[in-house]
């Protein structure tokens, strides 16, 4: 079996991790593992996990390390993750990064891509972001009238995420700076960090990520 290709995608909220992961998932035939999507799906379905985390998500705070680590551990045991996975939104604390290393072994993570976007720009992107409640497709607030609030891909309702309101945006960006930014040094010290400019067209960002992956002979 070829070596597993586990890639961590880091970047502030609104940096474009989800958009890029969807593209990379099809390019590399890897599952897109987004802890945010898993948690939101649980809230929507009203499962015990969802009921436990609903208020945390709405406030834009972080769910406990133990809970997310267990969630990711279970997800990575599924057959489609045997070849590797694109990790989006995890790890986002040092404790999670250390747990992931234990879970996958020392050479488990092949590369960590940091999507760099200035805070002013992500704040603007998040405030104007609207999402389809059913399929997760992303729109801008300026598109809403043209589509009458209905997703063009699946007909679902297009809404504003509760945590894309100003107070929650501030909270999430603060949490990023405090808890997640230290991971840059963590991966850098292991020679695993590649920074990519996220302030360019989605196609150019994808090209830059692919170039970083190929430069290391990973795919
Ligand atoms: P964003 O990165 O834009 O905040 P996500 O979709 O990645 O959005 O995550 C949404 C929310 O889910 C977070 O604000 C947090 O409450 C929770 N969450 C997601 N991933 C993690 C994680 N690794 N650790 C703790 N909480 C998480």
Mean pLDDT: 95
How much of the sequence lies in strands comes to 15-25%
Describe the largest sheet.
5 strands, parallel
Q: Going across the major beta sheet, what is the strand order?
A: 2-3-1-4-8
Query: Quick one: CATH class?
Result: Alpha Beta
The shape is globular
Radius of gyration: 17 Å
Classify the helix fraction into a percent range. 40-55%
Count of alpha/pi helices: 10
Low-confidence stretches: none
List the ligand species.
adenosine-5'-diphosphate
Count of individual domains:
1
CATH architecture: 3-Layer(aba) Sandwich
CATH superfamily: P-loop containing nucleotide triphosphate hydrolases
Describe this structure in words.
The structure is a single chain. The chain has 219 residues and is of the alpha/beta class. It has one domain (5-215): 3-Layer(aba) Sandwich (Rossmann fold). It has helices at residues 17-28, 35-45, 48-59, 65-76, 94-104, 119-127, 144-147, 166-180, 182-189, 202-215, and strands at 5-11, 32-34, 84-88, 109-116, 129-132, 138-140, 158-159, 193-197. The strands form two sheets. A five-stranded parallel β-sheet has the order 2-3-1-4-8, with helices on both faces. It starts with a strand and ends with a helix. The model has no long low-confidence stretch (mean pLDDT 95). The structure holds adenosine-5'-diphosphate. Adenosine-5'-diphosphate (ADP) is lined by residues 13, 35-36, 39, 56-57, 60-63, 68, 89-90, 92, 96, 163, 172. Adenosine-5'-diphosphate (ADP) binds at residues 13, 35-36, 39, 56-57, 60-63, 68, 89-90, 92, 96, 163, 172.
